[in-house]
C-alpha cells in the first residue's frame, strides 16, 4: 500500500476515534501499518502460501512448503517488509541441527532474495531472469514491503501469452501446464506440444522411418509446418511433393493433408504452428489411416 493511501487511512481512523469521543481508539501509525498490511497482503491467495513470519515455527513452515509448488518461502516481518528466503533444504537442515519442531523461522539462516521494485519497467524484469539467473523475483515497494512474486515459468508465460506487464497481475493464475506438456506416442512416432494458448499451439512432430500420419483435415485451425530434419512426401489436397529440411508448408482449414517419412533410416522432424480458436485432438478428422484409427 502506498504511503499516501496509508496516510488517508490513518487520518480516517483518527477522525473516527474523535467523533466517537474515544481517545483509546486513537491508533499509532505503527499499529495502523501493521493492521493495513494484514488486511491487504495476507488475504492475497496467490502469495500467502509463500510467506512466513520469523515468529512461525518449523511445522508452520513445512505446511507452507507443502502447499506451494516451488518449495521456497519468503520471510517477512510483522509489517510485510522482506527479510529473505528459505527453502525446504534449509528447514530440513534446521531439523537435523536443532531436532526441535518448535524452532522458530527466525533461528533459521535465510538467503538474499532477488527483487524488483513496483516501479521497475519490464526491461528490468527481463534482465533479472535472462542475465541475473533469477528463478523467481520478489516484487517490493520503496519500503521493501512485499507486493507480489513472479517465477521464471510465470515470466515465460507472460511473454508467450502476450500479457502486458503489471506488477499487480496475479501471476499464479497462469497455467504452467502450457509449458510442461508430455510427449505423446503415436503409431508413426511421437509429438510434443511446446506451447499452447488461446490463439496458438506449437508442436514438434517426429515420424519414424517409413511411417506416415493419417490422411486428415481440421475444421478449427490452420497449420504452418517447417521441416527441420529428414525427407519425405507431403500431400495437401490433390498435390503431392517432395519435402526436406527448410521446406515450409501452409495447410488451410479443411485442407486434406498427410506427410510420410520416405527415409530408410532417420526420423522426419517438423515444427507445427497452429492458428485458430480450438486445438484439441478431436478436431482431427481422419479420412484414411494405415493404423486402423478412426
List the keywords:
294 residues, CBS-domain, Jelly Rolls, 3 domains, 6-stranded antiparallel sheet, disordered N terminus
Structure at a glance:
This protein is 23% helix and 32% strand. It is of the alpha+beta class. Mean pLDDT is 85; it is low at 1-11 and 26-43.
Description:
The chain is of the alpha+beta class. It has 3 domains: 1-39, no CATH class; 40-173, CBS-domain (Roll); 181-288, Jelly Rolls (Sandwich), CATH 2.60.120. The protein is built from 6 helices and 17 strands. It has helices at residues 3-19, 29-40, 58-67, 88-98, 122-130, 152-160; strands at 51-53, 72-76, 82-87, 115-117, 136-140, 146-151, 183-186, 189-196, 200-207, 215-217, 221-229, 231-236, 239-244, 248-251, 257-261, 268-276, 285-288. The strands form 5 sheets. It has a 6-stranded antiparallel sheet, with no helix packed on it. A 3-stranded mixed sheet has the order 1-2-3. A 3-stranded mixed sheet has the order 4-5-6.
Amino acid at each position: 500500500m502506498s504511503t499516501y493511501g496509508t496516510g488517508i487511512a490513518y487520518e480516517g481512523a483518527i477522525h473516527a476515534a474523535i467523533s466517537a469521543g474515544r481517545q483509546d481508539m486513537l491508533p499509532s501509525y505503527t499499529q495502523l501499518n501493521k493492521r493495513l498490511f494484514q488486511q491487504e497482503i495476507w488475504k492475497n491467495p496467490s502469495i500467502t502460501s509463500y510467506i512466513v513470519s520469523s515468529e512461525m515455527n518449523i511445522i508452520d513452515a513445512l505446511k507452507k512448503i507443502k502447499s506451494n509448488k516451488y518449495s521456497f518461502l519468503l520471510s517477512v516481518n510483522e509489517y510485510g517488509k522482506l527479510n529473505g528466503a528459505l527453502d525446504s533444504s534449509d528447514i530440513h537442515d534446521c531439523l537435523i541441527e536443532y531436532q526441535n519442531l518448535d524452532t522458530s523461522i527466525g533461528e533459521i539462516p535465510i538467503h538474499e532474495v532477488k527483487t524488483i521494485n513496483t516501479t521497475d519497467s519490464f526491461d528490468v524484469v527481463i534482465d533479472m531472469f535472462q542475465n541475473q539467473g533469477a528463478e523467481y523475483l520478489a516484487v517490493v515497494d520503496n519500503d521493501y514491503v512485499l507486493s507480489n512474486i513472479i517465477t521464471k515459468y510465470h515470466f515465460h508465460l507472460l511473454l508467450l501469452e502476450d500479457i502486458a506487464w503489471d506488477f499487480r497481475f496475479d501471476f499464479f493464475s497462469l497455467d504452467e501446464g502450457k509449458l510442461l506438456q508430455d510427449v505423446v506416442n503415436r503409431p508413426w512416432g511421437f509429438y510434443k506440444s511446446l506451447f499452447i494458448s488461446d490463439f496458438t499451439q506449437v508442436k514438434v512432430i517426429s515420424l519414424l522411418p517409413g511411417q506416415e500420419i493419417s490422411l486428415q483435415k481440421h475444421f478449427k485451425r490452420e497449420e504452418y509446418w517447417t521441416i527441420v530434419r529428414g525427407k519425405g512426401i507431403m500431400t495437401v489436397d490433390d498435390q503431392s511433393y517432395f519435402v526436406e529440411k527448410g521446406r515450409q508448408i501452409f495447410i488451410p482449414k479443411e485442407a486434406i493433408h498427410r506427410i510420410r517419412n520416405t527415409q530408410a533410416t532417420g526420423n522426419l522432424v517438423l515444427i507445427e504452428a497452429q492458428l485458430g480458436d480450438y486445438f484439441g485432438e478431436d478436431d482431427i478428422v481422419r479420412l484414411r489411416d494405415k493404423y486402423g484409427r478412426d
